[in-house]
């Protein structure tokens, strides 16, 4: 963490945050009877996807995890195959391999609709990225703790414990933490480290009193992050290219006898907050995840003393962001990969705890 003498806000790099979770992962790994095995499936010629695959390999090998990169389709050099060719078969093969504890597919491949199908094809017992509908159902319904066997049950019949029902973040006997998407979870961990979460407040409501703006409502980062933060008590403005939505657990009627909803609701924002500039003016936290090198959030629009987090590979904030922000986190990638490895360790425990085969079809 560093700051200048000119009154600029703190620059908080992900290394400091990642270090604590690296220690946690190493301790958990030491307790395993065997090193968890992660299979990465690369089926595209995309340069960033291959870079991420190699980064994953280095992190796994440095910590003692087993990593196998399965290349198919356009990822094969001089193979003459198209984008995504063979990816479905590779996923099914990894699902059926009892030696594999986690499966990671490097997206995008075909586009949102077909990629969504591939995400559901990965067994929920091996989904290290938390993209399966069973995990999304839990995330959006604020279900934090589940029985491992519920991953084989129909989603609508899944039983679990919500954040507001739980006393703390320790699963009750017979239950485990539901898997969360890696990047949104990494952002939450960064905000916890930065002190945005108030540990004095009850578990499940520790972001109460904070207003957060999340720029970009993608299904991989933006929307699940808005849900996570609002389920933790924050008021979240989710800003996308064509709309603004408000995520909150608080009822809109101030005279309501209900203190808050058991999970977040989504509604149009009040008229006063129908522009990005208006939302930023009241935001305690701003998270930007726009995959566009030319997109920049004007520093002049930021609230004095806010916390800014850049998630995109490109910098979404102007160079002088620390003139307004009290704290700026320029990247979260190193924390994201450790969230992935934490998920991998948990999935290995889920498989060991559940008598149900991990190769069952997600539809069963």
UniProtKB/TrEMBL annotation:
It comes from the Eukaryota. Residues 181-243 form the Tetrahydrofolate dehydrogenase/cyclohydrolase NAD(P)-binding domain. GO terms for biological process: purine nucleobase biosynthetic process. One of its GO terms (cellular component) is cytosol. One of its GO terms (molecular function) is methylenetetrahydrofolate dehydrogenase (NADP+) activity. Gene3D superfamilies: Leucine Dehydrogenase, chain A, domain 1 (3.40.50.10860), NAD(P)-binding Rossmann-like Domain (3.40.50.720). SUPFAM superfamilies: Aminoacid dehydrogenase-like, N-terminal domain (SSF53223), NAD(P)-binding Rossmann-fold domains (SSF51735). Residues 13-129 form the Tetrahydrofolate dehydrogenase/cyclohydrolase catalytic domain. It holds the Pfam family THF_DHG_CYH. This is NAD-binding protein. It comes from Lentinula edodes (Shiitake mushroom).
């Amino acid at each position: 963490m560093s700051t200048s003498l000119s009154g600029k806000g703190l620059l908080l790099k992900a290394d400091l945050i990642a270090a604590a979770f690296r220690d946690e992962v190493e301790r958990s790994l030491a307790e395993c009877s065997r090193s968890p095995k992660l299979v990465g499936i690369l089926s595209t010629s995309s340069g960033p996807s291959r870079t991420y695959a190699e980064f994953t390999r280095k992190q796994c090998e440095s910590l003692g995890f087993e990593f196998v990169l399965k290349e198919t389709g356009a990822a094969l050099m001089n193979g003459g195959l198209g984008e995504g060719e063979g990816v479905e078969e590779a996923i099914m093969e990894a699902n059926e391999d009892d030696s594999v504890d986690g499966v990671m597919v490097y997206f995008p491949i075909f586009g949102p609709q077909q990629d969504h199908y591939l995400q559901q094809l990965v067994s929920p017992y091996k989904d290290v990225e938390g993209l399966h509908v069973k995990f999304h159902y839990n995330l959006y319904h604020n279900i934090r703790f589940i029985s491992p066997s519920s991953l084989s049950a129909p989603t609508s019949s899944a039983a679990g414990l919500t954040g507001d029902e739980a006393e703390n973040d320790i699963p009750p006997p017979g239950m485990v933490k539901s898997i969360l998407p890696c990047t949104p979870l990494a952002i939450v961990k960064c905000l916890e480290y930065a002190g945005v979460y108030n540990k004095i407040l009850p578990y499940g409501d520790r972001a109460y009193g904070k207003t957060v703006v999340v720029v970009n409502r993608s299904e991989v980062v933006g929307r699940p992050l808005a849900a996570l933060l609002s389920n933790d008590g924050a008021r979240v403005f989710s800003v996308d290219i064509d709309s603004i939505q408000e995520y909150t657990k608080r009822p809109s009627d101030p005279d309501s006898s209900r203190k808050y909803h058991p999970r977040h609701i989504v509604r149009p924002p009040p008229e006063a907050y129908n522009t990005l500039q208006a939302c930023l003016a009241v935001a305690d936290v701003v998270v930007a995840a726009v995959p566009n090198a030319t997109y920049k959030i004007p520093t002049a629009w930021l609230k004095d003393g806010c916390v800014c987090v850049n998630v995109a590979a490109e910098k979404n904030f102007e160079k002088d962001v620390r003139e307004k922000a009290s704290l700026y986190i320029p990247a979260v990638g190193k924390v994201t990969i450790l969230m992935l490895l934490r998920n991998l360790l948990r999935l290995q425990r889920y498989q060991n705890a559940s008598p149900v085969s991990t190769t069952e079809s997600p539809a069963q």
